[in-house]
Amino acid sequence: MSAEIETRLNELGIVIPQAVAPVANYVPYAITGSTLYISGQLPIESGKVAVTGHVGKDVDVAAAQRAAELCAINILAQAKAALGGDLGRIRRLVKINGFVASVPEFTEQHLVINGASNLLANVLGEAGKHARAAVGMAALPFNAAVEIDAILEIA
């Protein structure tokens, strides 16, 4: 892992956990050429989904932003696993897709996904600035409040 990324993680108090194994018939990441695709990551912390329910009913924006941060940390965990432990190989975070389990009248999905966007930009610096989508969903696996996937350019 590059020293710069390691320093930022330490300053932010973030410890990258072991990558979570898939729970169905898919792989957690795929590499083709210089592109790393990371499957949707849930807000898993200490082995369980940490934030569940629907934003706008069971979950407020602040808790949902924390869920998005956990998804981003799990994206970094998968990237670390895919890249042999070297997050310094990330050239650029190209795009994230953020899915927010929310009630129909909730329209601040973009604020929720800011939790992930801000964390990734803070950890990866300029390489962490990305395109994204933030959409509302009727439900997500395991009643998770947020799920995020990612596309990265790698060395």
Short summary:
The protein is built from 3 helices and 7 strands. The chain has helices at residues 3-12, 61-82, 109-124, and strands spanning 29-32, 35-41, 44-45, 48-49, 90-101, 131-137, 146-154. Strand 3 (44-45) and strand 4 form a beta hairpin.
Please indicate the count of domains: 1
Structural class: alpha+beta
In percent, how much strand structure appears in the residues? 25-35%
Number of helices: 3
Largest sheet properties: 5 strands, mixed
Number of strands: 7
CATH superfamily: RutC-like
Pfam families: YjgF_endoribonc
Protein name: Endoribonuclease L-PSP/chorismate mutase-like domain-containing protein
Domain Endoribonuclease L-PSP/chorismate mutase-like: 6-145
Organism: Sinorhizobium fredii (strain NBRC 101917 / NGR234)
3D structure, described in words:
This protein has a 5-stranded mixed sheet with strand order 1-2-7-5-6. The protein has a two-stranded antiparallel ribbon with strand order 3-4. It contains 3 helices and 7 strands. Strand 5, helix 3 (109-124) and strand 6 form a beta-alpha-beta unit. It has 155 residues and is α+β, with helices and mostly antiparallel strands. It is globular, with a radius of gyration of 15 Å. It has helices spanning 3-12, 61-82, 109-124, and strands at residues 29-32, 35-41, 44-45, 48-49, 90-101, 131-137, 146-154. The mean pLDDT is 97. The protein has one domain (3-14, 27-154): 2-Layer Sandwich (60s Ribosomal Protein L30, Chain: A), CATH 3.30.1330.
